[in-house]
Specification:
Helices cover about 65% and strands about 0% of the residues. By secondary structure, the protein is an all-alpha fold. Among the domains are: about 85-210, no CATH class; about 455-560, Tetratricopeptide repeat domain (Serine Threonine Protein Phosphatase 5, Tetratricopeptide repeat); about 770-855, Tetratricopeptide repeat domain (Serine Threonine Protein Phosphatase 5, Tetratricopeptide repeat, Alpha Horseshoe), CATH 1.25.40.10. Keywords: Repeat. This is Pentatricopeptide repeat-containing protein At3g54980, mitochondrial-like.
Amino acid sequence: MRAPLKNSSSISPFLLRSFPSPKYLCSNPQTPVPRNPNPNTNFLEKVTSDSHCPSKSISGSNSPGSLIPPTPEDPRLTPSLTQDTSLTRTHVINTLLIHRNDPELALKYFRFVENKRGFVRSIDVFCVLLHILVGSPQTNKQVKYLLNRFVAGDSGPAPIVFLDHLIDIAKRFDFELDLRVFNYLLNSYVRVRIDDAVDCFNGMIEHDIVPMLPFMNILLTALVRGNLIDKARELYDKMVSIGVRGDRVTVLLMMRAFLKEGKPWEAEEFFKEAKARGMELDAAVYSIAIQASCQKPDLNMAGRLLREMRDRGWVPSEGTFTTVIGAFVKQGNLAEALRLKDEMLSCGKQLNLVVATSLMKGYCKQGDIGSSLCLFNKIKEDGLTPNKVTYAVLIEWCCRNQNVKKAYELYTEMKLMDIQPTVFNVNSLIRGFLEACSLKEASNLFDEAVESGIANVFTYNVLLHHFCNDGKVNEACSLWQRMEDNGVVPTYASYNNMILAHSRAGNMDMAHTVVSEMLDRGIKPTVITYTILMDGHFKKGDAEQALDVFDEMVGVNIAPSDFTFNIIINGLAKVGCTSEARDMLKKFVDKGFIPMCLTYNSIINGFVKEGAMNSALAVYREMCESGLSPNVVTYTTLINGFCKSNNIDLALKMQYEMKSKGLRLDVPAFSALIDGFCKKQDMDGACELFSELQQVGLSPNVIVYNSMIRGFRNVNNIEAALDLHKKMINEGIPCDLQTYTTLIDGLLREGKLHFAFDLYSEMLAKGIEPDIITYTVLLNGLCNKGQLENARKILEEMDRKGMTPSVLIYNTLIAGHFKEGNLEEALRLHNEMLDRGLVPDASTYDVLINGKAKGENSLSGVSCA
């Protein structure tokens, strides 16, 4: 049965590629003009002796009798054979047609004449030969060979032209249309030129010739391999339009195409549709579906597909296990990844390096560096050789977990194994050394990286950020110069780091100079650049200049980030412009800014520092109404504010509310409450909180201890204060100047001068220098106890240290000498006070008139803490 043909009445001239003139496109063959009266003997001799005819490939070719030319019984061809030896297209076609029932002889004849002088190559001749050969099992393979050779040449016509001729020749010479020749043609184009193969396929469809599915799959394979995914989609859509949905190979190919496009959801949907149609799918298709599920990621689906594979008796490949294990590690489900690893091993698969490295990374992400290193040692014992990816994972995560020593060991081991470290490894190590405060090791590694040529701009940025973040401007500038000398082009991060360094050093002029250098080099400042500048101006207290920078940023169409908004609000609150910060927040919210806890905390803290507790509480309520939950910092700030304003009841209410929301008080929150109770001289309440702090697993710091010590001092319980001092020493908490000053004051108040000066000596031995408050406490205690000579020595010590006594100190000394009846020394001290430029106050004159200071046993406004 013949395939349906479409009539091709004409062929466009531009498609006649590589043909000298249209005459080579055959119309109806004409009878040749006789030229040689007896060509038969010569023809037989030529065919049987021609070296271009491979006799082994054609059966029966060794018998000259089989090449007997047509006899005169055929009136159409006898004249041409007996009278004309020309090799015109018409003559050759007619001769081939004579042997249409003997394809082997036809092929021999074609090979005989194709290299003869005078033979004009013609696509029509070739098409006639293909139709003759394709119908015989003996010559069928020769069609593939001839088409491959023909298509590979540069003189063939366009695919559509070739198709038109094949169809036209079949019609004119009454050949049955054999689909194999078209399939072979399509396959030949796939082997040589993929675009021509697509044109050939489209031409076949236009002529209602449907390629066999295996050949369509071959074309699909080539398109997918060549990443021509759009063309693969078009091809498949045309297949569907003619009722061909393909087989499992087609499904596999299209799923791969979708994955190459980065569309795993389409691959998964394609798989589900094929499965729903009842198509018989194999393990390879399931493996691709699992890969798609892992890329989405939909690991529940991946798990279900794996179980289906096992239920069907299929063993997942090592690659499938590797993909799924890696996906579970990436999702953070290490337990399932380890279970799948065990399943893989139970299926007879070996633990490969990719799986082992994935599991090591999984352990590292959970902070279990020990298990990761154990697995690393095990794979080495089992004969697996770690690669640079394995080492990179371990080096990076050892550095992240502050185990830079082990990271450097791995780095050294890596080099001993002739595995060249990457700049990523070096950068991780430098960062690790810096975080471990090992600047020397970091610098040595940096120098090594620069000398070996491995360092890049990110290597410089790591060290540059460290210097800039620590305010080491000189070191940062030296590194910058070295970077430029080595031809390393700075990045945005490089410039931003330098701007940060100058901003933190308070040198905003230099920070702006760096911005100018950025612009000169054609690098536009980013939102981070401007935000760093704003933060620098705010820290210098220059809110106006900071807001000018903000306006400049908006003026050049750079959108502020949430970080920018928070910097502005926090900066305004810190410079005492909290009301302005609150107004600014409302404007930012109108522009789409969504405040976070940090934002409200900045404003609340600003109002607390200004003593505006009602405003702070109003912002707190506003925060809650916006749907944000206050955090520990919010409550701690409010508790601290209420305690400082002697509103302990509201502070305790905040504490209760905090606990009711499941938030635990931190040390600063406990500290604020304890300090509030101490100021109220409610030491029982303070002690309860102090015990609670320890019961919840927190450790009191020096601030908490100082509040408790000051509280006990104020209620004249110096023994309890000294016990706390001993506890501090036992727990390794360093006492500071405030601790010693408070204790000395308490001991002096009780007349325990010896113990007070023992503590003073202990303080000096620890390198803690007294300040004006400490000296005031000492002089007040000594004078009150009549120790005027020792008081004079303290005054001389102050003079040696260049510390000018305060009016309060002079008042205390003058009162002490009046009390002892030493009026001359009292007046001398008064004159000395005037000579120092100090202005006597009401207490001074009260001493001079009445001979005593007001409240002799108090410090009259001087805080010891």
